[in-house]
Amino acid sequence: MAAAAADGGVCHVAVLRGDDARTAQVFEFQKIGDDEAQAIAEALKVNTTLTQLDLSDDKIGDVGAQAIAEALKVNTTLIQLHLHGNQIGDAGTQALAEALKVNTTLTQLHLQRNQIGHVGAQAIAEALKVNTALIQLHLQRNQIGHVGAQAIAEALKVNPTLTQVNLHSNRVGDAGAQAIAEALKVNTTLTQLDLFSNEIGDAGAQAIADAVKGNTTLTQLDLSSNKIDRVGAQAIAEALKANTTLTQLYLQRNQIGDVGAQAIAEALKINTTLTQLDLRGNQVGDVGAQAIAEALKVNTALIQLDLGWNKVGDAGAQAIADALKGNTALIQLVLSRNSVGDAGARSLSEALQKNTTLQNLNLWLNQIKDAGARSISEALQKNTTLQNLNLAENRIGYVEETVLRHSIHPTLQLHIADQRRSGSVRCHEVRVVVLGDPSVGKTSLVRGIADGYVQQAFSNIFSIANSTDGIDISTVILRETVFLREPVVLRAKVESMILIIWDFAGQEVYLVSHQFFLRERTVYLVLFDVREDLSLHSRLAFWLRSLHACVPNADIILVGTHIDDPSYTSERQQEQKQNLDNLLSTLQESSVSFNVHSAVYINARNSTGAPSMPELKTALFQAGHDMPFYNRLLDGQYLELRDSLRKRADQLVAQNKPPLCRWHEVVELGQSQSLTEQAIDAFMELLRFQGWVVFHRLANSATPDTSNVPALQPATLLASMNDIVILNPQWFTKTVLTGVITQKPKDRWVKDGLVTRQDLLRNAWKGIDSAICDQFVLLLQRYELLYKMSDADQPGTDSASSAGTRYVIPSYLPAYKSDPSKWSLKPEASEPHEVAIVMETKFLLEGFFSRLLVRFHERKFNLMAWKDAVLVNYGGPRALLRVHRNASNVRLEFTARGKHPERLLPTLIEILDKLSSDWYPGISWKTYLRCPMQVPHDKPCRWLLRTQVRDAVIDKMKNLSCSHTHIVFPKEEWLPVLHSLLQRRLNAVSQPTPEDVEALRQLEPQPAPASEIQTAATEAASLVAAQLIASGKQTLQEVGAAAIHSVREVEKQVTSSGVQQLQNIAAQSAQDLQRFNDALDGIIGAIPNAVKTDPVEFDRLIQSTVLKRIDELAKALDSRFDTAESLQQEQKDEIARFFTSQVQMQLDLLDKPCPLLFVVPEWHRIDSHPGYEIAKFSKWLKKYGSRVRSLLEFVRPFLKVASLAPGGPDVTDVVDSAITALEDPLEALPYLQRLLDHADQKKSSSAKGNQPAPASAASSEVTHSSQEAAREWAAFLSKKDEYKSFAGLERAVVLSSSSAGSSSNAPSSSSSGNATSSSSAPSTSTP
Q1: DSSP characters for 182-230?
Q2: pLDDT tens digits for 891-902?
Q3: Which SMART domains match (predicted)?
Q4: How far apart are the first and last CA of the chain?
Q5: What CA–CA distance (Å, rounded) separates 74 from 81?
């Protein structure tokens, strides 16, 4: 007892013994045993307030039950006692029975799921003969058998109080049932009797039925899951004819069959009291159902009828449907898991149009297909009383499923998921986008197309905007009669098309966000006001140009509205139609191409019954038919994936979370449905085109990637596993975009384009959890609508707030004002060269320049930004980009100044070209070189890039000269800047002229002549190759040593001959390395086979690339291990990471630079490549980590030779550490702070002794930034809530990996010969 009290018994006793006036106490699932039960029992003896005690599902045995029994003898307040789910046997039950003989207050006793046998039941029975208080007795799921049941039955003959007895699952059999039946003949209090699953057959059922005939108190009888067949059912039916009190009868899971059902049906014609009848799982077929249907025509009492899990087919369903037309009592009908098909569904539909009482209809898991579903949808448009309809797991196609969803009235709950569609289905969904100015009638037109009923496609959460903001997405069913030509006649067929309509808000503020959702494979309804003159300056021209910029050759239906205006006379109508033709012709002449299907004129405000509405619907139907995916056969699993994603969105909404996920979650979901990655890609692309989801996949290397958040690319590019997929596009536009990017001028709270995180939480997303808001910010960054300010950024205003993290929204920046202190009219003395490029287009969408600013920021340029200009500083050269708009065109002027403007200007234009090709393929640019000779008040000269500049490249005698001053613009001034740009422009020409071809030839770099040094290197490599082929006994270490020796000899010659030749060899090595990278996987897996198959090629690749780089890396390691004795093991691991980065650099030298490029200035540029960002590392690690580990294991024997050098270390352990680090970069986290402390101590001690700091702690820019990054990581990690988010984890990996990879100083120059001065790199800030 003492032990029990120590383990919680004291708590229980204290509660029950104290002055607490509670009336109920629950100790369910508390693992209470006999000791605790005894303690509780002692308390019960003195407790005077408790009325309910729940000790269910504990571990109380006979001892505990006996103690509780003793308490019941003296307790005078307890009314309910729950002891079910314990280990009480006959002994405990006998004690409780003795207590019942004297207890006068307990009304409910729950002893189900114990170990009570017939002995315990007999004891309870004896107590019931004298007890006058107990009302409910629950003994289900024990083992009382027929002996125990007979004893209980004898007690029921004399007990005056019991109303409920539950003997569920006790194997009482026919003998027990017969005894209970005898009791029912004389008992006058029992109202509920549960004999579920007791092995009762016909004999027992007949006995109970005979008793029910004369019983006048029983209202509920459960004989489910027994062995009753038609004989027993017939006896029960006879009882129902005489009984006048029974209201609920449960006979599920017996074997009554059609004959038994017919007998019960006859009884129902007479019985006037039964309200619930459960005949589930009784092998009832059409005959039995038809009999019950006849009864329903006259029965006025039955409210609930369950015929589920039987064999009812169309004939039975038709009979029941016929009865429902006149029945006015039935509220719930269950026909689940039968064989009802389309014919039965049609009959039930007819009944639903007439029945006015049925509220719940369950047709789950039948054989209903499209025809049955169509008839049900028609019935639902008229029926207003049905509240719940279950059609799940039938065979309804997704078109008719959508139709059904549209047919239901607001109060009806429709369950239609998980249709068992076999094979392929046809795609009948078409995305429609509605464009036009405000008040032109877009929303009214959508209602008219839907005949007044529009079904919202998505539910919205975090609703901030009103219904007119952003984009409204709805689904509309369009039905059209089509004629199919058959051998003899034309056959008419009604075809349904599902329109997924995106209604775009027309205000100018929304145009920045709308462009993300304009795409191909869409029908566009472009609305215009017929009262406006149609010209190149009209609003219709604006919308057509805006659409063409994003979607050339878009499929368009023009809709003229407000034709009811009195000014729109017949003469005006003809005039406007001619104006429209002229406008379209003019646009096409300027390369603005469309696929205009038709032009329809309508009064949009009253369009539902407008005379021209059928014309518009036909145009929509025909345009939808022309979509490339329409009517295409799809795997039925497509719908399963779509429905799963919609369920995921609903679940997230229910959890008050944003309805979005990562691409890898989509892949995992698809793979759980046995879809291949190719199928997932295809299905997701279709979902995107149809408007169900929004995502823009990230390119792996399409652009030199971003800082913290990668820029989005079109969905045709390779997907990253961490890309965001928006499962509710309407939510994205109304919640994430509205209020930030789409602020109306009168409501604008963003000042001068700058906001803080607190501004966003307080104004844009007020009341939304801050963690969710941070995800919103991430989305806006990914969509290039804002960017996080770095210390180097300077907005074009002085009103920036310094409180909290700041973000720049470029579209709200102030306009540019000339300031000579920032950019003078003439270049400064330190800027000897100036080159200007002008790019001109007829039309430029709002938001283009804002996104260009974001991309510049992602490249870590220092920016001073305005709404229409930006000053870019590249550490040496700088450039001013300005936007000039007029009525006829838009000009972007790039002016670059400095010693080397070629290092900046081509990169800026390349970024602009990439943005145009990715998002605005309809925008065409003319590119000019502007004359640098500034003549006041004169228009500067411009030379068109393709003709005039190209010709100057071809003809050495042709120069570019100023028409005002006649001064020649020297070729050496402009050609280095325009070289790559001119190449891109000429390569993009679809039909190049001979002049284009010649210019490209001259622009190609000329190969350097072979030198003696290169010949010597080839000979040395051949020598090693011969050794590798000839000697099978030589170890790899020996071969590697020979290779290193020979290459070092060559290097000596190179060094003595000049650095330039070394660079030439390195460049050739880089080219060879690209081919090696392609063959790497096979080489690593099968070295012997590669030697046998093609020894010459294999050896050439190995010797010209890998072994040469191994030698260079080994030397780099030698210099870094000079102070190895003083380094901690953690620092050795850190150096190994540096080595790993260099190895990976060799793998991805040309197109996938390794993370070393991100943090070491000396390696920042390779072949004029401006470098990648540090946030790329985690993605690189995931993709290439396994390959690098394989390479390390491959070269590990070669690296052993580093120990041959005098004083050289054995780097084997270091390679092992690198392999381990690549497997889990987070293992590097624990020692970062100690590494920094060690570096600080070294630095401090060096300062005291006036000695230079060792290499590992040198105060270089790289070491400093690495220390700062590590300290930021330490502070970041303490924020547990951020660390748990996927963005936080990703950032932690980036910080830890980049810190480890950059803590050591890089070599002073690149071994590959591609090093550039750090001053040419764009400035960066700590991530």
Answers
A1: HHHTT-SS--EEE--SS---HHHHHHHHHHHHH-SS--EEE--SS--BH
A2: 999 999 988 888
A3: LRR_RI
A4: 63
A5: 15
